[in-house]
Amino acid sequence: MTEATRQQQIMEKLRQERDELRLQMRLGKAELKEEWEVLERKWEHLEGRMADVAGEAREASKGIGAAFGVLTDELAEAYRRIRGKLH
């Protein structure tokens, strides 16, 4: 599995989690809405970075790989936390 494929799989998993939570947030708790807005800005940043990586040479994207891991881990943990608060 290539690094790009692995990153795409991670993004797809996070996208699905985000979509499910977005629906629950519409019906959910008001106090979580502010936290959600912060996460949405991080998601938009991540998607922008992924678009940049897709257009760059493989060597140039290695440095972004570490940042990708940190940001996706942060988003995944925050999504788990929000899901726990919604239930």
Provide a compact summary of the structure.
The chain has 87 residues and is mostly helical.
How is the main sheet built? none
The residue-averaged pLDDT reads 83
- Rg from C-alpha positions? 14 Å
Apparent shape: elongated
- The secondary-structure class comes to mainly alpha
According to DSSP, the number of beta strands is 0
Question: If helices are DSSP runs of H or I spanning 4 or more residues, what is the number of helices?
Answer: 3
Amino-to-carboxy terminus distance: 35 Å
Share of β-strand residues: under 5%
Model regions low in confidence, pLDDT < 50 over at least 5 residues: none
Provide a descriptive summary of the structure in words:
The protein has 87 residues and is mostly helical. The protein has a domain at 31-87. It is 91% helix and 0% strand. The chain contains three helices and no strands. The chain has helices at 3-27, 31-55, 58-86. Helix 1 (3-27) runs parallel beside helix 3 (58-86) and helix 2 packs antiparallel against helix 3 (58-86). The longest helix is centred in the C-terminal third of the chain and has 29 residues, at 58-86. It is elongated, with a radius of gyration of 14 Å.
